[in-house]
Write a structure and sequence with these properties.
The chain is mainly beta and 424 residues long. It has two domains: 4-12 and 203-411, no CATH class; 42-177, Immunoglobulin-like (Sandwich), CATH 2.60.40. Helix content is 11%, strand content 35%. It has five helices and 28 strands. The protein has helices at residues 189-196, 204-212, 248-253, 261-274, 382-389, and strands spanning 4-11, 42-50, 54-55, 71-72, 75-76, 79-82, 88-95, 103-110, 113-121, 130-134, 144-157, 165-177, 216-217, 220-221, 233-234, 258-259, 279-285, 293-296, 299-301, 313-319, 325-326, 337-339, 355-356, 359-364, 369-372, 377-379, 390-396, 405-411. Strands 2-7-10-9-8-11-12-6-3 form a nine-stranded mixed beta sheet. Strands 21-20-28-27-18-23 form a six-stranded antiparallel beta sheet. A five-stranded antiparallel beta sheet has the order 1-17-24-25-26. β13 and β14 form a beta hairpin. The longest helix has 14 residues, at 261-274. The radius of gyration is 28 Å and the shape is elongated. The chain starts with a strand and ends in a 13-residue tail after the last strand. Residues 1-38 have low confidence and may be disordered.
Length: 424
């Protein structure tokens, strides 16, 4: 009997790096830095990131791209580029009447980058946008997070290149992926943050490992947060089973931020795909053939109360809408097997639910290991999963019928006999 069944293969072909640095124009010589004139009538009112290699970051709340401009004096929104491309910005400007017709060079500096626009002619309102391009590309094949990218914008008249004038400062989060994202419609802000905030990934292996570090810390949950530091929960304490969503998008947008294992596996998977990292698949773990439920650690086993020589314990629990046992409220559990503290989930020291018909994890096709973002654990195979996670297995007592409760018969695992094979 094979209890690990692959349900959603996503072994996607590794994307080829496209040529992203088209239309780069060598700037005029940078003007001198030795003198600074007083601020004057040209000022920056908005900045929008754009160009080859740019991707929209989408809002967690509704899945729509952040509105542009990405920067105004009143707001700042994130941007995403693929490594090896160049930062490009469309600048919105305002000017005093006396500057109309003047020709200037525009420069933005910060974070080790210089964006340049040569020979911009100041025109009457509505002022035409200026296009600024970085003089150097983002390092190729390296994940990065410019947090934030602060650009100090200045300008100089073409007939006075040794005098520069302040235009303003822009501040934005800029994420840099290792490779072009696989599905651009899934680039929610928190997914992009999980993909890029651990920087330095330079190949498929290190991209996977760095993303995983946002989910796990030394075999325990890393207590994942949204990009703006709101905790995401795996079966948040005190909330009923029905409150935990199966959708990663709902987990990010809902005020409870509470998800089941499928939502957590998808969240990890989409973070990998944000970097174009496709060599993984979802795996569903099922109970052994003689049982209906996995019982996740920890549970305390009292004296036996059932005549079955194998399933020696029987509990009564509240029945959920699907007809399965539910642990909320705990007062609905009676019998010799009782839940105990143990095996923390993401932002849940003891998850509200610990009895399931299945569990979903992510298989890394490079090292053939199984990564469990719900608990922050890695399994080498079936025996390792059972050793780290399983307290017991249960089946329904089909002879007991009650509209509000369900009775389950429970046995302990027999090491070496359960879950005998993983897909290869």
């Amino acid at each position: 009997m094979n209890s690990f069944v692959s349900t959603a293969e996503r072994a996607l072909a590794f994307p080829t790096q496209a040529t992203l640095n088209a239309d780069i124009v060598t700037p005029a010589p940078l003007f001198a830095r030795g003198s600074h004139a007083a601020d004057f009538g040209l000022h920056l009112t908005g900045l929008t990131f754009t160009g080859p290699g740019y991707y929209d970051v989408r809002m967690d709340t509704n899945g729509q791209p952040y509105p542009t401009p990405h920067w105004t004096p009143a707001r700042s929104h994130p941007a995403l580029y693929v490594s090896g491309s160049r930062l490009r910005a469309t600048l919105q400007l305002g000017a005093a009447a006396g500057l109309i017709g003047q020709v200037v060079h525009l420069r933005g500096e910060g974070g080790g980058y210089t964006l340049w626009c040569s020979n911009y002619t100041v025109s009457a309102s509505p002022f035409p946008p200026a296009q600024a391009v970085a003089t150097t590309a983002l390092p190729t094949g390296t994940v990065n997070f410019l947090n934030p990218l602060v650009l100090a914008w200045t300008c100089a008249f073409t007939n006075a290149p040794d005098q520069f004038h302040r235009l303003g400062t822009t501040t934005n989060q800029v994420y840099v992926t290792w490779s072009p994202p696989t599905y651009t419609q899934m680039l929610l802000h928190t997914i992009v943050h999980l993909a890029c905030s651990k920087t330095g990934g330079t190949n498929m292996g290190t991209v996977f490992e760095n993303t995983w570090r946002n989910f796990a810390s030394h075999g325990t949950p890393a207590n994942v947060m949204t990009w703006d530091a709101k905790p995401l929960h795996y079966y948040k304490a005190g909330l009923a089973f029905s409150n935990a969503t199966t959708s990663y998008a709902t987990m990010l947008s809902d005020t409870n931020h509470n998800g089941q294992c499928g939502a957590w596996a998808d969240l990890f998977g989409w973070a990998l795909l944000a970097n174009g990292r496709g060599s993984w698949n979802l795996v569903q773990i099922n109970p052994p053939s003689d049982a209906h439920y996995l019982m996740i650690k920890e549970w305390t086993f009292g004296g036996t109360n059932n005549g079955d020589p194998y399933f020696q314990w029987e509990d009564q629990m509240t029945k959920n809408a699907e007809g399965n046992p539910e642990m909320v409220p705990l007062s609905g559990i009676s019998g010799p097997v009782s839940p105990a503290d143990g095996l923390a989930g993401q932002n849940s020291p003891t998850p509200a639910e610990k009895i399931f018909t299945r569990h979903v994890v992510v298989r890394n096709q490079l090292d053939q290991k199984y990564y469990d973002p719900s608990y922050g654990k890695v399994y080498t195979g079936a025996a390792d999963f059972e050793d780290q996670v399983i307290a017991g297995y249960a089946k329904k007592n089909e002879e007991y019928t009650n509209p509000e409760n369900v009775r389950i018969r429970i046995r302990k695992p027999e090491v070496g006999l359960e879950l005998p094979g993983f897909p290869q």
